[in-house]
Amino acid sequence: MSRDSIWSPSLTEAELKTVREEQAKLLARDPRFSIHAYRFVMQALRVATIKYHGALSTKSGSGKLPETPDHVSGQQLSYAAAEFATQEYGYLAYRVLSHWGIRTTGDIGDLVYNMIEENHMQRSPADNRADFDDVFDFKQVFEQEFRITLDED
Length: 153
Prior knowledge:
Number of strands: 0
Strand content: under 5%
Helix content: 40-55%
Distance between the termini: 61 Å
Shape: globular
Largest sheet: none
Radius of gyration: 16 Å
């Protein structure tokens, strides 16, 4: 089973048991976040990889994302996550992410590094958890994106 297979929807019963165990480890590591937050970050990583590098590639069919040349930075992942959330959840994006525990770009960094610790993601030597800190204000980005203005006639 590949490292990112815990995010795959089509699993056998035995694989599903392993998935539940792996997800329980992530949730126990940092109970601030729901499993939906981890899934969201994995999807945002795929979106970021495609955005910045084109089609996804894999190493030797393992199913995991390679470190290079498709690596994305913390800032790139943060911006891609905001774009993805806006596309998926529209004006409710901030509320949905907040409900899952994601309120800042730093939270994305915490999720990423939790997954790194559990071997569901890889990091390059140049990566740093601080790369995710204060990239932008989540709430402000989502509120500005969907500001409703009325034309005065």
